[in-house]
TrEMBL record:
Lineage start: Eukaryota, Fungi, Dikarya, Ascomycota, Pezizomycotina
Protein name as it appears in the record: beta-galactosidase
Record-linked PANTHER family: BETA-GALACTOSIDASE RELATED (PTHR23421)
Highest taxon of the lineage: Eukaryota
Residue span, Beta-galactosidase domain: 426-607
Reactions this protein catalyses: Hydrolysis of terminal non-reducing beta-D-galactose residues in beta-D-galactosides
Entries under SMART domains matching the protein: BetaGal_dom2
UniProt record, GO biological process: carbohydrate metabolic process
Length: 1029
């Protein structure tokens, strides 16, 4: 994600007139061009009222089509509400099902994911799509089973705040050119990965009866033009690069539409509507992060201008300029923000929480967007060395599904809209008629009118005219309807917007065989059963609403919520119903076989609409409606039983609306005592989890060992762990100030901590070191075993320098002197910065010269894959890592007892190790996290947390504020022993100690049992580690 945005717009009647003029001009233009279009392969006329807009396909098949309005999959229009996950940030395939079931439960029709070149291609001769989470085929199998379409975004570059933007470490030396162009060295490097990825994905496309429907080429690569994009001067290296990537995808079986995502509205790249230059994709996309992509708002002001909370951006005119014959599509829209080093503890959900979801996602619909992918829906964890320097371990992203897999108000608020977009089929074929305060009776409130071109169904998206305001406002709305012009509500009262809120009010809304003439309450969803049609509406708690049901002849209250104040008024068209909804649910019945459920916000949060098939579009006649549980993951019907699976956080009631023949509820494969209400719903009581069954061990029995023997004069560096650092030339564009070249990537080491040993003879006065390791990195220096100094690091510095005095050190006369530099590495930078070297940029001996240098990193570097299951990012170069002390099965019986709470008395590195059992019962989903704390007296300490061989936390309390580190089941063994390790690096001579506690984040009774067979994910220690001492 390249975070570049620009203009914020103010709306009003004048702009509405301008936009309507533009819209008319564009319609006229494309009608005149229709003859030309009709002759283009993959373009056909539409036999309906929208014939001025061509229906596209890619010329390979018609499984996926698209036009000015929306995507069609297998001939059916669909609103794409999609959410991003990164499988490599949750390296447990069994947990992927949990995440995807939650995305489906939120009403989404799709999910998306980035690939990770470096994860799958650890060295130039190895591709891995088999070991553990490297095997992505379960994602497609789960998607098919759950019922979600899939957008695949393989790279080769993805950004994603991941190390080098997912480029492999071996690519960052400069040997492959400047990258992201048509340099043959770079092309030869990415071709095996992209070919293999494409071939694998080709088996899971919608053209093959599976669920992949879009395939992205590169990522935010807005490089099509030289200079001003409106001059349309092609960039030949960029177009050749895109052409090569597209050809590789096609040659390896990809036959779904290819997409691209512009990083901002300035670059205007890769749309066939905008130009016929090379490199164009089938469908254009735009990414946007209007409320800052980072918790550090200062990162946004240079590109977005001064940050104003809840200020939206205008997209409609951009899409009309760049891609008017295509659906308005956002491959990335802001789902949250990442938390940088130094960011607030726990992230920054305040301005990007539930209110953000309510306002901004509806705003996108007002812009006529019918396909958007939230980045992120589930962020996960940048475990190991997956993080780019801009972030620490957590990639929670303040996403709707939290890093610990819990759901919160933002999830529920997003669900309220996603369920609506899945149900509102008419929303997939609308024109944007206008946007103005003239639609409302309150000049503070603006409405945008979207109208279906086939049947006249209308959607009025209402919000503050100045969306940065959160005042309580009331208004009435001027609407056109099949019954003529109306001012709604008609029977008194007004519509309320309270805070940073938006509402989509429908007119002539089609549901099943019925029509809702209008509603001032928002539609949540509806279901069609053999006993009638059930429409679900919602309003914020204690707000009033009014709706008109066409064709209804009589209305009655079937379930009354205290304070609902329901009244019915008949007119020539049907029945008007007014109400005020307190907390809870009201059920109304009408003589035309329509029932209407009215919910307040809190009740709507716990209302679900699972689909009984695996059809991602959620057909209304395949939906059951469920109210009550913490989460409903899915439903099916067999005979007279409705089988529902989901989660409860406590004992609760469940109410189900299902076909008339169903009389029994099965919850998580257990039949529960079921009664039928007077209005036909099924009611039962569900139990909650037994918290007493989850007992966590105390982390109070530790062993300890020195993990920095390399500082000692007696240490022998002649073994396999070390390489001579003797290069006198480098292909890296950044040349070192001194030789030899001391860049770690040159010597096959790329991740985590690195060690340098510089030798010199005789006397010297001191040394000057300039080291680069990424934001928040640090380094420490010893001479002949004596600590000299540390560069502590900061959240703002990628490099640092020290001038070291040897005045108080002991130098050897007869033996060589050894200067040890222990360097942290927080990953490679993003985009062009991926080539910025990691290592020592300058090493000068004051009063002498170094004779030679040696370097050590992860055991065997990337050339030797000792741990293909966890992969190349799992560990770095500390002695503890090289020798496998962090792995299950290592024998620490000879170690001394010692606790991290006792810590170190001076500068150095200790490794602490304990083994603790877990016995989490089946049938529960339990989320666990480690909480780390600095016990002092110094907080100038760097800590790595290891769990069963996975590095799942970087704790730098003097720089960052992350203290809680969730670890998923599968990494943790919920049914046996767990090896927990802490590498504690004290950077000063002050004492440093660390506290650690294992905590429960949540306990749920669930159909997803977090205890499963996962031993294959946790391979143990092997003797071959010993050679890397």
């Amino acid at each position: 994600m390249e975070r570049l945005h620009f203009t914020v717009y103010v709306f009003g009647a004048r702009r509405n007139l301008i936009m309507q003029s533009i819209s008319f001009f564009l319609r006229l233009l494309f009608v005149l061009c229709w003859i030309g279009w009709a002759s283009v392969p993959g373009v056909s006329a539409q036999e309906d009222g929208s014939s001025q807009w061509p229906l596209h396909d890619n010329g390979l098949n018609e499984a996926v089509e698209w036009d000015h309005y929306s995507f069609k999959i297998h001939g059916e229009r669909i609103f794409i509400f999609s959410g991003e996950i990164h499988y490599w940030r949750i390296p447990v395939p069994e947990v992927w099902e949990d995440i995807l079931e939650k995305i489906k439960a939120a009403g989404f029709t799709s999910f998306a994911f980035y690939g990770h070149w470096g994860y799958h291609h650890p060295n130039p001769s190895t591709l891995d799509f088999e070991n553990g989470a490297h095997d992505i085929t379960p994602l497609f199998e789960i998607a098919k089973r759950v019922g979600l379409y899939v957008i695949v975004r393989p790279g080769p570059y993805v950004n994603a705040e991941t190390n080098a933007g997912c480029f492999p470490g071996w690519l960052t030396t400069g040997e492959y050119g400047t990258l992201r162009n048509n340099d043959t060295r770079y092309t030869d490097a990415w071709t095996p990965y992209m070919s293999e990825y494409s071939e694998l994905v080709s088996n899971y496309q919608v053209s093959q009866g599976e669920n992949v429907y879009l395939y992205q080429i590169e990522n935010e690569y807005g490089e099509q033009w030289i200079g001003d994009p409106t001059d349309k001067v092609p960039n030949p290296t960029a177009t050749a690069y895109m052409d090569a990537l597209e050809a590789t995808a096609r040659a390896n079986g990809i036959d779904v539409p290819l997409i691209a995502n512009d990083p901002n509205m300035r670059v205007l790249s890769w749309s066939e509507d905008f130009s016929d230059a090379g490199g164009n994709v089938d469908v254009y996309g735009l990414d946007s992060y209007p409320s800052c992509w980072s918790c550090n708002l200062d990162e946004c002001t240079g590109t977005n201008g001064e940050y104003v909370a809840y200020q939206v951006m205008e997209y409609y005119s951009h899409f009309q300029e760049v891609a008017p014959t295509q659906p308005e599509f956002m491959p990335e829209f802001q789902g949250g923000s990442y938390n940088p080093w130094g960011g607030p503890q726990g992230g920054c959900p305040e301005d990007i929480g539930a209110d953000f979801a309510n306002l901004f996602y509806r705003w996108n619909i007002a812009q006529k967007i019918t396909a958007m992918n939230l980045y992120m829906m589930y962020g996960g964890t940048s475990w190991g060395s997956f993080a780019a320097p801009v972030v620490a371990t957590s990639y929670d992203y303040s996403a709707p599904i939290s890093e610990d897999r819990s759901i919160w108000s933002k999830f529920h608020e997003t669900k309220l809209l996603a369920l609506f977009t899945r149900a509102a089929k008419d929303l997939t074929k609308v024109e944007r008629v206008g946007n103005s305060t003239d639609y409302t009776t309150n000049p503070m409130i603006m409405a945008t009118l979207l109208e279906n071109v086939d049947n006249g169904a209308r959607f009025y998206v209402t919000n503050h005219a100045d969306t940065s305001l959160g005042s309580l406002e009331t208004f009435s709305l001027h609407v056109n309807s099949s019954a003529g012009p109306l001012i709604i509500p008609q029977k008194g009262g007004e519509v309320t917007l309270n805070g940073h809120q938006s509402k989509i009010l429908v007119v002539d809304f089609n549901f099943g065989s019925h029509v809702l003439l209008y509603s001032t309450a928002e539609v949540l969803t509806y279901a069609v059963t053999d006993v009638g049609t059930i429409l679900v509406l919602w309003v914020p708690t204690d707000e009033s609403g009014e709706f008109h049901l066409k064709g209804a002849t009589d209305g009655s209250i079937a379930k009354y919520q205290q304070g609902s104040n329901v009244e019915f008024f008949e007119d020539d068209e049907g029945i008007i119903t007014t109400f005020t909804q307190g907390q809870g649910m009201t059920v109304l019945e009408f003589e035309n076989d329509v029932s209407v459920i009215i919910l307040d916000r809190k009740s709507a949060y716990h209302f679900w609409a699972p689909v009984t098939s695996n059809d991602p579009s959620g057909p209304a006649d395949e939906i059951v409606l469920v109210h009550g549980p913490y989460l409903v993951r899915g439903a099916s019907i067999n005979g007279d039983i409705v089988y529902i699976k989901g989660d409860t956080s406590e004992a609760c009631s469940i109410e189900v609306y299902a076909p008339g023949n169903v009389d029994t509820i099965s919850w998580n494969n257990e039949t529960v005592n079921t009664t039928k209400s007077d209005h036909g719903s099924l009611i039962a009581e569900l139990g909650g989890p037994d918290m007493s069954e989850v007992v966590l061990p105390a982390l109070d029995s530790w062993k300890v060992h020195d993990s920095l023997p390399e500082r000692l004069e007696t240490y022998n560096d002649s073994g396999a762990a070390w390489k001579g650092a003797d290069h006198v030339e480098t292909p890296n564009p950044t040349k070192p100030a001194t030789l030899p070249v001391l860049y770690v990537d040159e010597y096959g080491f790329h991740n985590g901590a690195h060690l340098w040993r510089g030798y010199f003879n005789g006397t010297a006065n001191g040394a000057y070191l300039r080291v680069q390791g990424g934001l928040a990195f640090g380094f420490s220096v010893w001479l002949n075993g004596q600590f000299l100094d540390s560069y502590l690091g900061s959240a703002d510095s990628s490099s640092g320098n020290l001038t070291l005095s040897f005045a108080n050190a002991t130098l050897n006369d007869a033996e060589p002197n050894v200067l040890l530099v222990l360097q942290d590495n927080t990953g490679h930078d993003l985009r062009a910065g991926a080539l910025d070297p990691r290592g020592i940029l300058e090493a000068r001996l004051i009063g002498g010269d170094f004779t030679h240098w040696k370097v050590a990193g992860s055991a065997g570097g990337t050339a030797v894959l000792l741990d293909p299951m966890r992969g190349v990012y799992a560990e770095g170069g500390l002695t503890a890592e090289r020798l496998g002390w962090h792995l299950p099965g290592f024998d620490d019986s000879a170690w001394d007892a010692g606790s991290p709470s006792e810590g170190l008395t001076g500068a150095g590195v200790n490794f602490y190790r304990t083994v603790v059992p877990l016995d989490i019962p089946q049938g529960l989903d339990v989320s666990l996290a480690f909480e780390l704390s600095s016990l002092g007296p110094s907080d100038q300490v760097r800590v790595q947390l290891f769990v069963n061989g996975y590095q799942y936390g970087r704790f730098n309390p003097h720089i960052g504020h992350q203290i809680e580190f969730p670890v998923p089941p599968g990494v943790l063994n919920y049914g046996g022993d767990n090896t927990i390790g802490l590498a504690v690096w004290a950077q000063t001579e002050e004492a440093a100690s660390v506290g650690i506690e294992l905590k429960k984040k949540y306990v749920l009774e669930s159909s997803f049992s977090s205890r499963f067979e996962s031993e294959y994910l946790r391979p143990g220690w092997t003797p071959e580690r010993l050679q890397y001492a």
